[in-house]
Write a structure and sequence with these properties.
This protein is mostly beta strands and 208 residues long. The protein has one helix and 20 strands. The chain is 3% helix and 54% strand. It starts with a strand and ends in a 5-residue tail after the last strand. The relative contact order is 0.12.
């Protein structure tokens, strides 16, 4: 809303929605999104596809400093679990969330409907720690779902820590893209994914 302030969203249960929790152009401030349960159950207006709902979105048109905590949320049957765009500042944490994808029959997800457990776009200094991202049904067996089902995607985001997360039956456990200077991927556990870590056209600078 282009205003500074504090947002505290805690302990809510959301069903039958398109986008669950959306903060857009919030401005500089403190945001806590904690202990919420999001499960659309049935789909209303699709966000990009027939199963294209988004759970938690913090979207800024231009980069903004926000003290952000997204912790202990339970998200199911979504296209985007947690999606952050242009969030900057020294304190951003995405911690101990659970994202569960459902296998909607053969050929899921379909072309053009990439699914994300946690997606960072243009975010700096974000810690993504101790999250669990899983899919029901069989493990992916071809490169097509590997491109379309991503556990954690880090895009054009610097000085981020992706650590101690668990990805199960993803197409790609961790996807990295564009400029990732200073970002670290460490101590994650990935089981039965088609690809573990996939870095596409990445600039990472010097890492030791």
């Amino acid at each position: 809303a282009n205003r500074n302030g504090i947002a505290y969203i805690d302990g809510n249960e959301l069903k039958k929605f398109n986008n669950g929790i959306l903060l857009q152009d919030f401005g500089t401030g403190d945001v806590d999104i904690l202990n919420n349960e999001l499960n659309p159950l049935s789909f209303i207006t699709p966000f990009g596809s027939t199963i294209g709902n988004a759970g938690i979105m913090v979207f800024n048109t231009v980069p903004r400093d926000i003290d952000l905590n997204i912790n202990d949320n339970d998200l199911k049957k979504l296209r985007y679990g947690i999606w952050l765009t242009n969030v900057e500042g020294p304190n951003q944490a995405v911690f101990n969330n659970k994202v569960m994808f459902n296998q909607f029959g053969p050929g899921w997800p379909s072309a053009g409907t990439t699914h994300y457990g946690i997606r960072l776009q243009g975010c700096d200094n974000t810690v993504v720690d101790d999250n669990e991202i899983k899919k029901s049904g069989p493990a992916p067996t071809s490169s097509n779902p590997a491109d379309l089902l991503r556990g954690i995607s880090v895009e054009n985001s610097t000085d981020c820590d992706i650590q101690r997360n668990y990805m199960f039956k993803m197409g790609t456990g961790i996807w990295g893209e564009d400029v990732l200077f200073g970002s670290r991927i460490r101590c994650n556990e990935m089981k039965r994914n088609f690809w573990g870590i996939n870095l596409e056209n990445v600039s990472i600078g010097n890492h030791f």
